[in-house]
Write a structure and sequence with these properties.
Radius of gyration: 14 Å
Structural class: mainly alpha
Number of helices: 4
Strand content: under 5%
Oligomer: single chain
Order of helices and strands: HHHH
C-alpha cells in the first residue's frame, strides 16, 4: 500500500500556528517555550539572529509543507517579520 504523502488534516487555527512557531523557535534557541510570547521581538527579546530565523523558516516550511502543498515563506517577506506575532499573522494569512 503506498504511503500517503499528504494526509488530510484540519486547518491550523491561530493558536496552533503560534504554538508551532513557539515550539520550533524554542528548539532553535534552546530556551523554554513558556518564555516566548506573541509580542516578543525576535532580535530584541529573544536574541534570535538571522541564522536562527532562517532555521525557523526552514522548520516551518517543512512542517507546513506537509499540510499545504508549496507553503513557502518568501525571503523578501522575512525582513518584515520582526516579532512572533508578525510571524503568526503571516503564516495564518498564507494558510488562508
Amino acid at each position: 500500500m503506498p504511503a500517503e504523502t499528504h494526509v488530510e488534516q484540519s486547518p491550523l487555527d491561530r493558536q496552533a500556528v503560534f504554538e508551532l512557531i513557539r515550539d520550533r523557535l524554542a528548539d532553535i534557541l534552546e530556551i523554554d517555550p513558556a518564555t516566548i510570547n506573541e509580542g516578543d521581538s525576535f532580535a530584541d527579546d529573544l536574541e534570535a539572529d538571522s541564522l536562527a530565523l532562517i532555521e525557523l523558516v526552514e522548520a516551518l516550511e517543512e512542517e507546513l509543507g506537509e499540510r499545504t502543498v508549496g507553503f513557502r515563506i518568501e525571503d523578501e517577506d522575512l525582513e518584515d517579520l520582526k516579532t512572533v506575532r508578525d510571524a503568526v499573522d503571516y503564516v495564518v494569512a498564507k494558510l488562508g
